[in-house]
Backbone:
């Protein structure tokens, strides 16, 4: 069974540009979570999608947005990139109804803003 | 809102010894889960152990066990017989997948 896949693995953007990160959950999982892990910091919760709807949002500015598609894959968009957006972005998926709490993580996308 | 706090940014332990990582949390839920995740240098998040709040018995997975104190809202992870491969970041998390800031564990031979 394929795990959670994220693309791209690395992304380099310049300040002010937009970045799009993608996540494909484990087959059958309906919930997708996005986290930011800046260097030396813990996981900061960004967004939670379930069944195509945004269920919860962390304390991030509106230029961080996303969506979940009918096949449950998800995109994270970061507009007007700032240097401090450089971080590892992790996606996780879970089967919310059956096991709302056990999530499987992808390998992450390393975003570098220069 | 749920909060999860890890007050130990770094810990170290000698190989074969025991180490305990601390975590406290706050929640208004009466029934919930708590988790410990491990993040090795590969960055892959790995579920180590989970505890269901309604179960009084502390969860155990081989060398990993928890000390769950529901009234104190404390959820510590004990690693026995530490191995070099245990070196990693360890995150405590709630069942809303709110994470603590992590504890970096170093294991010395």
Residues:
């Amino acid at each position: 069974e394929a795990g959670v896949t994220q693309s791209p693995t690395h992304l380099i953007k310049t300040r002010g540009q937009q970045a799009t990160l993608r996540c494909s959950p484990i087959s059958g999982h309906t919930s997708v979570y996005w986290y930011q892990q800046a260097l030396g910091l813990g996981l900061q919760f960004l967004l939670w999608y379930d069944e195509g709807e945004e269920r919860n949002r962390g304390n991030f500015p509106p230029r961080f947005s996303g969506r979940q598609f009918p096949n449950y894959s998800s995109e994270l968009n970061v507009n007007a990139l700032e240097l401090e957006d450089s971080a590892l972005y992790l996606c996780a998926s879970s089967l919310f109804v059956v096991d709302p709490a056990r999530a499987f993580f992808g390998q992450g996308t390393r975003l570098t803003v220069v | 809102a749920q909060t999860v706090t890890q007050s130990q940014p770094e810990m170290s332990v000698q190989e074969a010894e025991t180490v305990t990582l601390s975590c406290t949390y706050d929640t208004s839920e009466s029934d919930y889960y708590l988790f410990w995740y491990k993040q090795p240098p590969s960055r892959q998040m790995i579920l180590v152990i989970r505890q269901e709040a309604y179960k009084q018995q502390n969860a155990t997975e081989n060398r990993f066990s928890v000390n769950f104190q529901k009234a104190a809202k404390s959820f510590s992870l004990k690693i026995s017989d530490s191995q070099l491969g245990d070196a990693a970041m360890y995150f405590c998390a709630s069942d809303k997948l709110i994470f603590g800031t992590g504890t970096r564990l170093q294991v010395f031979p």
About this structure: The first strand of chain B starts at residue 3 and ends at 5. The CA atoms of residues 10 and 95 of chain B lie 24 Å apart.
